[in-house]
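Hey,
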Amino acid sequence: MSTASAAAQAAGTEANEANVLVRMTGSGEPEQHIVRAGGPRPTAGKGKVVVEVQAAGVSYAEVQMLQHLHPFPPKFPFVPGYDLVGTVTEVGPGVTGWKKGDRIAAMPRQGAWQRYVELPAKALAAAPAELDAAVAVSLVTNGVTAYQMLHRLTKLAPGQTVLVHGASGGVGALLTQLAVHHGLRVIGTASPAKHDTVRAFGAEPLDYRTPDLVQAVRELAPRGVDAVFDHIGGSGLDAAWKVLVEGGTLVSFDSSVAGYRPGQWFRPHVPALRRTVARWFTRHLGLTGGRRMTMYYVKPGADFNADYSELCRLTSEGVLRPQIAGRHPLSGAAAAVRALLDGATVGKHVLIP
């Protein structure tokens, strides 16, 4: 049986069950600790709705959770899943503004990896019916993160230059496209195998493993860059700081967990936090040349909903081309996480219950 046929058969089996979900049972390898299970279909409580999930995202947050290295670790076992797109199937008492059949997007941070999920009505955003479900979910956490870092955290003008780390990843690919659309010159780091993808976005690729990254950036942008968007953290933040022009902004939006033992849940994120605090103080003492460093963490709310709507519009108009690395049934969740761990991914892996 082909891989596609097996996936279709698995998806068909899942569709016939009352509810199907995925649990993460502990720290370790995805094949051992990401398991498919069945369960009862939830009902909508007060102020909540039940959503049939059409697509749920797979993100680096799940990798961090699997290794118990997430800054806000849930308690094992739990149902992972940071974001989803689906259709309202039941509305609970006290809910206004939503009805059965409405298509929604949500970022529950966990719980999305199941066919049916109960969600607070106040945490929902409208999702356009015509947008492909996998594309729509790629715009939830990844898209809003990219949009808000570019348009709400920085004040960049067309013609300025930015450095985007991980320019072919889930966030980086969308950030790069948004920045190019905004008229910015983008230098994007990625492995050499992904350089053609970065060029297709309109950016200039740079190997992130270059021994002297500061010098490599300076060769492309002798005066420096106006902003750096960093998802690696650690000592790489020092290199990013060195290539900023006066008045430039360094945005740290994640931290690599490579090299940390499972269970050291906050340690990977300490370097970014320490540097952010130190540079806040030195900036207010006038010692940074106007440069600033900030950390970013996406959260739901009115701005989130507005920005998600704008991302959907840009995608419908063809301005954004979200990259879908793979579509998997819930029974393929471990394989999706493994693909993310292996580092060969361009764009976002998505689960289709």
